[in-house]
Amino acid sequence: MAKKPNKEMRRRYAEAIEYGCILCKILYGVKTEATIHHLTGAGMGLRDLENFIPLCPRHHLYEEGIHFLGRRVWEEKFGTQLELLEMYKNDTKSD
Ligand SMILES: [Zn+2]
Ligand SMILES: [Zn+2]
After folding, report:
1. Which residues line ion ligand 2, judged by CB < 5 Å?
2. pLDDT of residue 23
3. Which terminus of the chain, N or C, has less C-beta within 10 A?
4. Relative to the alpha carbon of 35, which ligand is closest?
């Protein structure tokens, strides 16, 4: 049976974008416009489509971005992607 496709994932991405950047929320208590970041890294099935967190362009791509600083430096600074994923999931499941 084919994996449930795009509709459900699109709904979840929209929900994540609506949630805002998780780091801006944690660090500054503000909601900023988010983009979807799929977890990166070795092993652990991290490439799964469902493993994503919302990050603003700054925390995603630019000066404080995981794709700019590199995963190790970024995770030392902000916490691991898995921790953030857990926080995001915990925070969104009750609504
Ligand atoms: Zn941010
Ligand atoms: Zn990314």
Report:
1. 37
2. 98
3. N
4. 2
Structure confidence by residue, pLDDT tens digits, 39-61: 987 655 555 778 899 999 999 99
CATH number, domain with residue 86:
3.30.40.190
- Amino acid at residue number 57: P
For 38, phi and psi rounded to 5 degrees?
-85, 135
**Domain that includes residue 47, residue range:** 7-92
- In a domain? residue 2: no
Ligand 1 centroid from CA 3, angstroms: 31
The predicted model scores a pTM of: 0.86
Number of domains in the chain: 1
Least distant ligand from the CA of 32 = 1
Q: Does the residue 70 lie in any domain?
A: yes
